[in-house]
Amino acid sequence: MSAGISLTGKNINEIYSDQWDNILKSVSPDLQFLNRHWYATWERKYLPQINPDSQIRYISLFDSEDNMHGTFPYVEFSRFGLKILSIAGLYYPFRSLLFSSDFAPNCANAFTSTIHETHGNSIIRIGPTVEDELANRMINKSFLELGWKCYQKERGQTNIIDLPGSIDEFNASLPKKFRDNMRRSKNKLCKLGKVEFTRFNNCGSATWANVIDQCASVESRSWLAADEEAELRITENSEFWKNYLEGNDASQRVVVWIISIDGEAIAYDFAIDSGDCRYGFSSHYDEKYKKYGVGVLVHSCMFEDAVSSGIKTIDMGDSSAQAKARWGAKPGSRIVDYVYLPPSLLGRLAYSGLKLKERYEIFRSPVQQ
User: Fold this and answer.
1) Which element (helix H / strand E) includes 107?
2) Are strands 313-315 and 330-341 parallel, antiparallel or unpaired?
3) What is the pLDDT of residue 298?
């Protein structure tokens, strides 16, 4: 099929399994965890919490033989009389457009043309997502050519660890003092009772349900418990994770390490593999054991495991860059919210309102030294 392939966008309510399988074969490997089961679980177990009357819909891109080459899963809602189409999915790992890597420019043009023709009075929100994702760059250009405005809000920056080929190389890359402190912390911890370091992957649903409960228990005893605004990524979404992990693909992708002492979980690290990338979704520890470095120890288990599993990159998300730097993490992509506003009077007014709000927030913020 040539690079000049012609694609047509269609508004549809469901994508069938074989269509999902085909599109996932053509997208970047680090997005292949975003399958039909992921979105179906999100729709059943997460969406009702934020918009109980909504459902996922899709703008999908087809060639003349009805092969699907891209899709935009979204939910629709209204604010101040404006219809908003917002990309579906959990905040992290990131919400992404699923475009065939081979035909990304064609997908971008077909997608923006379909939006322009069928949702020309709507606001489109894509994010938070990573700035340098190919699909994001392509649609940004296409929307601007159609006269749309793009409002961007930065949400943070990813922290990336590029892994070597062996555990010995990985450990040698860490500062000697850091390695010595980990060894001493582990020795002190082991004097408190029976300490176990347990890996979970490709488990049955009952085992996974127990793992999620253990992680939630640790989360409730972490520093997050004292912060009313903190997001409890496991506790608040436990039903999502339990249901998601009933799927075979999900069970094979998710890796969890738990440190326990005398049978009680005191630290965990929760990750999702996609291609040769491991997304660090959540990691916490019981504050009572902070001085024993259990947070560092459980990270060490996860990272060595990643090397052994052939993972090349760990995406540690957007929090605590300083703490992650000791593992060799470097700044990665910016995390951005893209809001596209149509070339209509309401669209222009909404864009101006967002820019005014932005200036007001900057004015109210403390002066950065």
Assistant:
1) helix 104-118
2) unpaired
3) 97
Over 60: is that where the pLDDT of 368 sits?
no
d(CA 25, CA 38): 16
- H or E element that contains 141: helix 134-145
* Residues 69, 99 contacting (CB under 8 angstroms): yes
Q: Which fold has domain 164-311?
A: Aminopeptidase (3.40.630)
Q: List, in order, residues 6 or more apart from 346 with CB less than 8 Å away.
A: 81, 82, 121
CA 85-242-316 angle, to 5 degrees, is 70
CA 250, 251, 257, 261 dihedral sign is positive
- Closest by CA to 339, choosing from 74, 116, 124, is 124
For residue range 15-25, list pLDDT tens digits in order: 888 888 888 98
Whose CA is closest to 328, among 164, 158, 162?
162
Any idea where the domains of the chain sit in the sequence? 8-156+333-364, 164-311
Task: List pLDDT tens digits, range 118-150.
Answer: 999 999 999 999 998 889 999 999 999 999 999
Of 127, 176, 183, the closest CA to residue 150 belongs to 127
8-156+333-364: CATH architecture: 3-Layer(aba) Sandwich (3.40)
Q: Using only C-alpha atoms, what is the Rg of the chain?
A: 22
Q: At what angle do helices 176-190 and 294-308 cross, to 10 degrees?
A: 110
Q: Which residues pair with 331 in a beta bridge?
A: 159
Task: Report how far residue 172's alpha carbon sits from residue 178's, in angstroms, rounded to the nearest whole number.
Answer: 11
Rounded distance between C-alpha atoms, residue 312 and residue 303, angstroms: 11
- Supply the pTM of this predicted model: 0.91
Torsion of CA 126, 113, 333, 74, to 10 degrees: 30
| Six-digit token string for 339 | 């809001």
In Å, how far are 154, 341, 366 from 362, measured between CA atoms? 13, 22, 8
Q: Which residues contact residue 225 at a Cβ distance below 8 angstroms, ignoring those fewer than 6 apart? A: 219, 287
Match 């949702």 to its residue by tokens: 119
